[in-house]
From TrEMBL, chain A:
Residues 136-182 form the SKP1 component dimerisation domain. Belongs to the SKP1 family. It comes from Digitaria exilis. This is SKP1-like protein. Keywords: Ubl conjugation pathway. Signal peptide: none annotated. Part of a SCF (SKP1-cullin-F-box) protein ligase complex. GO terms for biological process: jasmonic acid mediated signaling pathway; protein ubiquitination; ubiquitin-dependent protein catabolic process.
Automatic annotation (TrEMBL), chain B:
It comes from Digitaria exilis. This is F-box domain-containing protein. SUPFAM superfamilies: F-box domain. Signal peptide: none annotated. Residues 239-289 form the F-box domain. It comes from the Eukaryota. Pfam families: b-prop_At3g26010-like, F-box.
Amino acid sequence: MEVDKGKGEAEETRKVAEADRDTVTLKSSDGKLFEVSKEAAARLSTVLAGMIAGGSIDDNGTDLKQIGSEALENVVDYCNKHANSIPSAALISSSISFNTAPFKEPEEWERKFVDRLSHDALFDLVEAANFLGMERLLDVTCHKISEMMKGKSPDQIREVFNIKNDYTKEELEEIRQELAWAFYDD
Amino acid sequence: MGGLAATEAHSWVVQADDMIVNYLKAVEFYSSETGAWVLLRESGHEWLLFLGRITYFNGFLHIPIEYNAVVSVGTKGQPWRVTKMQCEVHRRDHGRGYVGHSQGHLLYVNNAIKDDVISIYVLEDQDDEEWTLKHNVQSDLCFEPWKSMFSPTYYIAGFHPRGDLIFFYDRSREKLISYDMNRRDWHIVCALEDFQHAHHPFFPYAVAIRSPSPRFQLPSQRADFATRRSAHGHRGDPGSGGLHLPQDLVVEILSRLPAKSLYHVKCVSRSWRALISDPAHRCRLAQTLSGFFFCRRHPDKTTPPPLGFAGLDTSPPPLDDPSLSFLPSSWSKIWKLLASCNGLLLLRCSSSQPSAGSATGSSPPPPFYVVCNPATGEMLEAIEIGRVADEEFSPSYLMDD
């Protein structure tokens, strides 16, 4: 009896520990598992926060069928690096009427984080951030891509993003004319 | 007396107070952050003849005064400062000074009526004492000479925020035209046949969505991601061109680009151009200047004139409805446009005019200011009018950085 009772208590303790676990396990579309701090996940992702609050987190790996392993690895990496950052409330509270863009410039580590990614990895990460409702990560990745267009000529933009020019010469001239007077070249 | 508004990250409403005839002695500020009015008095003993259009730039209100000078009033209570143009002063010229800003500099336009010359001055540094002459143009090359007319033959509509362009309204030809200071050439933007003369006839406007976009919904509202995603197009969708992302994310990226880069992106491919031109997306993208609101001619002199809009881009129009029909219908004919800035408009709603509904017994609201966004139809702020406000004369400017 004594032993059994002790066993029951141990079981109880284990269950409590399970519920109090400070990480969540996420599963990519190709079945790979990643662990991320529960606190960071809840703080940085509105979707994960909702799942944690709603108890729909699977200890054996919460299925994220829309996110590939490379993108999920980057998401988890980002969450871990973001450990000492500002609370999500400050990021989300952008409802003041006269607020200009609530976006804050990427920090040094965020810049480095997106700079090392290939184009495809970056695009995958934008989609993952959008899917998970990670406002800050979406901001940082979109900012990075917009930086790749800023100050570039149409030819240069086509080259960076590997886009075919499907305009005829006449059409292009027409577009240039359309706003020529408003579009001032330095 | 005048009422004017300026907004920063939070909103400011300012009223010119305590004026003897048109001499400016004090300015009253309202900040939406504190919800209170603050009075700023002129500390010296200068007689500042208030001449109309005010602009807000770098924390100061800049107001043209007589003798080709500008008084700058700091929003933090700094002493008022008067700066002068380096030019011969013609007494007759006052009343036509126009102050504005473009590309990070304050600009002043002086129309020398006597010589039919338009002079543009620049204050390179806010601490400079004097303005320097930037450009001179013979106005009679384009407009009818003033000497043969009793009233102005043209109006200044505004500066382009990103280029050395000034917009004018040519009264004899009834056209909005632009003047390029570097190329020294004129372009006709559009015809405005129903333009109505007013003290401040033109309000530069650029479409802007000010409140947070609904892209971050609660998790419960966005469970059906797959549906949402297919609705916005998949990877390789022609709408996203070579940038392999769903359309809404491409727009998210483009929304971070300045107007100039957007023009370049427009030239990249047909699909990108279509994406940028789509009215559903355009309101999220940067535009430095979409066009000008102006007062339209109308026979009824007892009510404020209806609004018209002169767009700079050809198609599609930046606003579905420039008549601000989202305002409560009981307000019809009692509001007046005072100022515009960064996609927001400042209106003054006055109780002194009979409202359309007065016959049925509903009384118009007491006078107040309203800040609204015509692109989204939102009314963002209603502000009680400060100590003094004049019905007739309300030069104003709305600004944020």
